[in-house]
Specification:
The chain contains 17 helices and 14 strands. By secondary structure, it is of the alpha+beta class. It folds into 2 domains: 3-112 and 257-428, no CATH class; 119-254 and 449-482, no CATH class. Strands 1, 2, 3, 6, 7, 8, 9, 10, 11, 12, 13 and 14 form a 12-stranded antiparallel β-sheet that branches. The two termini are 43 Å apart. The model is unreliable at 68-77 (pLDDT under 50).
Length: 483
Amino acid sequence: MSTSRQDQINGDLQTFQNNPIEFMNQLPPKYDRQGNEQVIGTTLFDQTAIDNKKYVDAGDELRGKLTDIHPTRAAFEGNDRAQDLVDIYRYSGLKIMETNGLMESKLDESPWSDDYWAIYLGVLGKRYADPNFPASQDWKQNFDYVQANPAQAILASGNAAAINLLSPSEKYDALVGDVNQSLTTQMWNEGRYYYESYGKVETWMGICHGWAAAAYMLPRPTGTATVVAANGTPLTFYPSDIKALASLLWAKINTSTRFIGGRCNDKNPSSDPNTGRLLSNKCFDTNPGSWHLSVVNQVGVSRRSMVLDVTYDYEVWNQPILDYNYTYFNPKTRIATNSLAEATVLKSNFNNDLFSQYRSQAADSVVGIAMDIAYMVETSPTHNPSDNASNDGVKMVRYLYDLELDMVGNIIGGEWYKNAHPDFLWTPAKGSTALVPSTPLPGSWKSNQPVPVQWRELAAQIATSKAAPLTEIVERLIAFANA
């Protein structure tokens, strides 16, 4: 542990000791790739939405998209087991994690960054490369611009430069010869619904849940894919275009998903007046014990990402994890240390434990943990002809918590030292596919040929019924880009 990191942790713990309520209600610090603290983090919510705690509703809506949750009960309550989330559950104790070199781990391949394809901008209908596209927070201004400059007219003009500036969904519609532009129509219809119902489209609404899954379930498109439209016109799909289609596919097509954590839609949950700790079990989940076990066994052991959803921290929301590293601190002295033995306090000797009334009866000892998590963040789409991990957006966050250990050293629970903590973790099951249609497509498609007629007909049907592209087309575009 570096001296600067130790000093930061010790400073935080001293602040916690001096004023636990204030510390518990602060957002955890964020860092860039170089470890520089970011005073203001990236957020999808404007100040009014933050003040109104709209992000709580947003998190609740996300859960509804991931699974069928009955609105009158707390989903996943009592279901906070890391075993239900990770691919391989191997280690349950801190000592054996340390012995096997799992106090830090980084994925061999980075999940790729992408836009969250905001609904107010037209989702995949956004002409992100067009310098005249308004990109206004008013959905109608963006829609009116596209209506005044229709894609069909641009395609008919034969102007290669103008065609190149079309949106991902417009290129897709041209690729499959859909003169009704079914996919693009569906993209704009999503915003139309909210605009006509509520007079505006919230800027946070998009398909980040689709990106978060696709970012590690599908390969990164490393180059462009030059293909032939149904009418013979050459089309260039840049990495950003292909990522957009991949994100939409995983947003719209249900797959086998594993998740743990609570469902808290209380914007002002009750808290302990002495510590600031949240009292509701629904808002406390995920337990730090489950969090620690999940991160180590999924990223460190299974070598695969998972998605972090933090409802109570509007600066981090629905992000795939890249790496982690942690060190210890003694929860009694509140001093950081590299030694597990020095950080371990017997519960019977922990006489200044602020959380003593919440401890498990089976807990024998308590260990403090400072974990730094690196996670992927959204980036703006571009016409860069190639893509690699250096173009990704990465941020880091530090979580402070303690872990309760039983008599043989197994992790059985713990306490957060900040209320803004991961409360919902999820991942598609390993090897799962966002598959549409459910049966194999006839024939094959090569990049120098138009998409087969049967595929085109089905593409229009799927775009209309599911607002999604065909799986085979998305995966073939990735293959063309990576050839």
